[in-house]
Amino acid sequence: MLRTLRTNNDRTLMILFTIIVLAGPLILAPVGAGYPDLMQRFVIYGIFAIGFNILFGLTGYLSFGHAAFLGVGSYSALWMMKLLSINILPAIIFSVVVSGLFALLIGFISLRRSGIYFSILTLAFAQMSYNLAYSVLTPITNGETGLQLDLDDPRILDGATEAGRLASPSLFGLEMGDTAVVPFLGMELQFNVGFYISALILIGMFYLSLRIFRSPFGMILRAVKSNQTRLNYTGFNSRPYTLTAFVISGMYAGLAGALLVCMDPLAGAERMQWTASGEVVLMTIMGGAGTLIGPVLGAGIIKYFENIFSRINESVVQGWFSALPEGLADFLVAVVSPFLGSGWHISLGLIFMLVVIFLPGGLVEGATRILNLFKRLSQARKAPADRADTDSTDEKRSSEGPSSSSVNTRES
Q1: Residue 192's beta-bridge partner residues?
Q2: CA angle 278-284-290, nearest 5°?
Q3: What does each of the 412 residues of the chain score in pLDDT, given as a tens digit?
Q4: CA angle centred on 28, ends 27 and 32, rounded to 5°
Q5: 35 plus 87 within the same structural domain
Q6: Cα 156 from chain centroid (whole Å)
Q7: Are residue 280 and residue 367 in the same domain, yes or no?
Q8: Cα four-point dihedral sign 205, 206, 212, 215
Q9: How far is it, in rounded angstroms, from Cα 82 to Cα 181?
Q10: Domain annotation covers residue 372
């Protein structure tokens, strides 16, 4: 019974998630986020956060070095586009494999420790990777300039391109930058090929994450998070499972890095900085670590703040309060402006603090609380009505007098 209920709930969640993701242009256009570049970032960083959640949300191992896999995936994908084909499929496959092997190496060493020592080890590996990409491995990474496509790239599987024109990443002829603009209710909905390819991959990765969460493998990872010492005392070797989770998580990050290159064929060392690793931690915790939908929600919120709130300058804020008296308007502008534009990090930091303090389970916990509140209110409203129906039924029975069976009994 419980298994059937969980299967139905998972199926419903998967259908709702698919509909919301595919309807992204329609949902995001009213809030000013319906343009292709930002929609693709929502999806790509959602994949990044889902992969990180498999490690952190299930095992409790907090990695501060996941940006290394993001960068390795980007460099691998771009080299595949330069040497083999501009088709994104070989680039994605190659980046996932390379990132998985790199994660296997780092995980094999880092998972010898747990807790803060594991986190410091992953941070150290990420910073070493960043410095290697920035200054040591410049023939491969092109240093601070970044790696990008060139006119003289060999691309063995592709035919000759037009002279003086850089090839654009594509999937069997569908260029990632192709966009169809459709007017709708006074808005311009932009349906981008790159967004929908990334969205389909996100849906597939979300489903894979769902299966991992519900599998015996996922249950073992939860046992590791609950009490790894007690699990080891039973004679169960948990290290192969945590290493597998680390590798899977790194492959998700590599996939996200490859999709970033497919969107914009440029790979730089800045993607491997510790700030990028910290960003995915914020995404997961804000949305809800250990939940399925939480990391995607957190990724969307942080990228929305980064791309929308950062563009709101003081003149825009003045327009918001232009109808108010001049003194009051100036006061409100002076109060609100520091939290927008270049100060958007302050707003994000305050929101993150509130979430951590009041909603330790993230925004998913907040949504769950609201749904439970509505359920209790609806049940409270139904209770008096049910009680009134019961009372009226009892009164009706008493007014009808004794039943015919009781009369027959008395007569006999």
Answers
A1: 179
A2: 135
A3: 556 656 788 899 999 999 999 999 999 988 888 888 899 999 999 999 999 999 999 999 999 999 999 999 999 999 999 898 889 999 999 999 999 999 999 999 999 998 899 999 999 999 999 999 998 888 899 888 888 888 878 888 876 555 557 778 888 888 888 888 888 888 888 999 999 999 999 999 999 999 999 999 999 999 999 888 888 888 888 899 999 999 999 999 999 999 999 998 989 888 898 888 999 999 999 999 999 999 999 999 999 888 887 888 888 888 888 888 888 888 888 888 888 887 888 888 888 898 888 888 888 988 888 888 888 888 888 766 666 666 666 666 666 655 444 444 444 4
A4: 145
A5: yes
A6: 35
A7: no
A8: negative
A9: 31
A10: yes
Place of tokens 């730089």: 268
Is residue 24 one of the residues assigned to a domain?
Answer: no
* Residue 82 falls inside a structural domain: yes
Domain that holds residue 58: 31-292
Q: Which amino acid is at 104?
A: L
Please indicate, yes or no, whether residues 212 and 65 belong to a single structural domain of this protein: yes
Asked whether residue 284 is domain-assigned, the answer is yes
pTM exceeds cut of 0.85: yes
Collapsing DSSP to helix, strand or coil, 266 comes out as: strand
User: Domain check: are 53 and 169 in the same one?
Assistant: yes
